[in-house]
Each structure stands twice: as structure tokens, then as C-alpha cells.
Amino acid sequence: EVTTVRVQDPRVQNEGSWNSYVDYKIFLHTNSKAFTAKTSCVRRRYREFVWLKRQLQRNAGLVPVPDLPGKSTFFVGSTDEFIEKRRQGLQQFLEKVVQNVVLLSDSRLHLFLQSQLSVPEMEACVQGRGPQTVTEAILHYAMSNCGWVQEEGSRP
């Protein structure tokens, strides 16, 4: 089984305003039975990764969860350098997470990677309080999102 996860295309949102942030495209391609959709693409920001790590830690028991890149406020160098370093760190984090069987069993991870639900919507979905099950949310997103696959090409 092969799972390729790439964090790419960082974009600054609300640039120039006090609430600007960077989000990243997460592209997933897999033949693993663990995943509902075999290809997906979502955009996530750093604080959503922080939420995911916290949830994985809470549910993984003694299994160590990989570290995220730091939230450095005193970064020396250009903003572009910082964003690229963070992108690499986020990619390494996800690569390690999807290789861990225990972490892979967490439905929050699947919603994070394969739906564009917000954090509160993911929580509601996992707790059965959302309008859809986890699988339905992922399949709904996959069906509405076929354009992503063509954009990325069908690279393994």
C-alpha cells in the first residue's frame, strides 16, 4: 500500500490585514484501504494542523505523535523562507502520521485530509452530531471536487 501526501502551494490569505494567515494545499494520493477517497486535495492553515495534532495525541494513547514545525514569532530571514520551512515541516508531520497505523485509524485525520470541513464541523461529524457520517462527508467532498484531480494530474 502506498500513500503519498504533499503539502504545497502556500497562499497568504487576507494579505496586508491584521488577520492574514497562510494556508497550504494538501494533496493525497493512495491505494490504501484505510482511505475512503483515493485522491483528495484540501487547503488547511497552521492552526488546523495544531488542532489535528492535539486530537491525535488525545486519542493515540502511548503512541507518539510527530512534532509540528514551531510557531516562531521571531523568525530570522524572509517571510518566504519561513513559509517554505513551515511547509516542509507540515509535510514531514503528515508523512509520519499517515505511516502510523494507530494514527491512521483516527477519523479526524481522514476528515482533515479528505474534506474541507471546519474544525467545529469535523468535531460534530466525528461525534455524530453533523448532518453526515465521516464517510459521507468525505465522499460528498470527493464527488464535488473532481477538478482537483485533473489539476494535479494523475501522478502516483
TrEMBL record:
- Report how it sits in the membrane: Peripheral membrane protein
Asked if the record carries the keyword Ligase, the reply is no
InterPro entries on file:
PX_dom, PX_dom_sf, SNX10/11
Q: Where in the cell is it found?
A: Cytoplasm; Endomembrane system; Endosome
**Pfam families listed in its UniProt record:** PX
Biological process according to GO: intracellular protein transport; vesicle organization
Q: Tell me where the transmembrane regions lie.
A: none
Q: Quick one: where is this thing mainly located?
A: cytoplasm
User: What keywords would UniProt list here?
Assistant: Cytoplasm, Endosome, Lipid-binding, Membrane, Protein transport, Transport
Q: What family does the Swiss-Prot or TrEMBL record give for this protein?
A: Belongs to the sorting nexin family.
Q: What is this protein called?
A: SNX11 protein
